[in-house]
Amino acid sequence: MAVNAVLKQRMLDLGLTQEELARQMNAALLRITGSPGDVSDRTVRNLLSGATRRPIARTRRALEAVFGCPLRELGFDLPGTTASPEDPVERRQFIAAGPALVLVSAAPVAGAPRRVGASDVERLHRRFADVITKDHRHGGQLVIEHKAAALADEALSLQASGNASQRIRRQVYSSAAAFRSSAMWAAIDGRRFDDAVRHMHAAQQLAEMAGDPYIKFRIWSHAGTMYRHMGRPADAAAVNEVARKLGITRQDPMFASLGLARKGAIHGVAGDGTATRRAFEQAQDAMLRADPDDHRPVWMNAFYDQAELDSLALSAYLALGDFERAEAHGHRCLAALRPHMHRSKAIATARVARAQLEQGDVDPAVASAMSVPADAATRHPRVVGMLHAFGVRLKAVAPDSTLAHTWDQYARGTWRQPA
Hints:
By secondary structure, this protein is an all-alpha fold.
């Protein structure tokens, strides 16, 4: 067996260890096929040692994606010129991969490879902060999901664009995972659950490659919220526990608080009032113990505070049918929300309206529902669904009232419904 000197040199040019090449190949396969890769250090050793001269199709596709060149330029023997039965399928899959594949397989710059460094990571961090800001303003929009996914692919393209230290490579993987988790959240918020699951799998693999416990927490915690919205509380509880068992929940009470608050929301959907109250009491206690000046990721600082805890409690008690307690948490949430939390304000207001309606307070309920900003009332999938459900329930509670007629007129004007 002859050592594959060409592949070895290409790895040196990009600063890739065997472990890093395996990670990048798995990331490429995930994007090309939609399924996690199974490339191991041993696979790479066999490729380098010459034990594998003609890689199988999946390995070949991953190598070409990472290095941005045909297999023949990596020192391997080519398969026979006669096309195999899978060749047309592979071609269609490459074409279907679209822009994401182009980004992942971007060829390194000719000549001496560039150095990927802290400034590149900082640029990714700034773009991530911009995604977070847009999410809080607009939430659930398909354009946010697509933008975040594209930025994840852009982050991965850095891995093949030049040399980098192990620390920088992990930070780039962490950024890619963060972008994917934002795409996941946008899909959850927009009720596109199949897309959310797809983003979740990609984000989980990237987070493992990064070894970043903070982004792992975000992904698993989002997964709990996703399954809660899908009406699967058992699955929601299971994945939320994965987040809660990460070491950062013991190091920082703020993460423990978020995990407990989302646990309380899951118990609310499951109809367990005692467990719901206990979880929110524990979440509140953990938040009070947290040092507000501790360093935390931008996504955590941007959304989790007393207002979000009360928002989750509002959701939980509304699901339990404890409408008075739900309304109280709703008003606390609205009073504490930061100005940029447009999406959260719309959701909390719609939930408060429902809590008021269920207590027989029709006048304030209709006023609350009509105060939801028109852009959220017509464009945000969760808010639209809540307000439609509010209208249906209003007709059942006060079918012939003036307020029901007022709401009908408002709804027809807002959604352009026919009379």
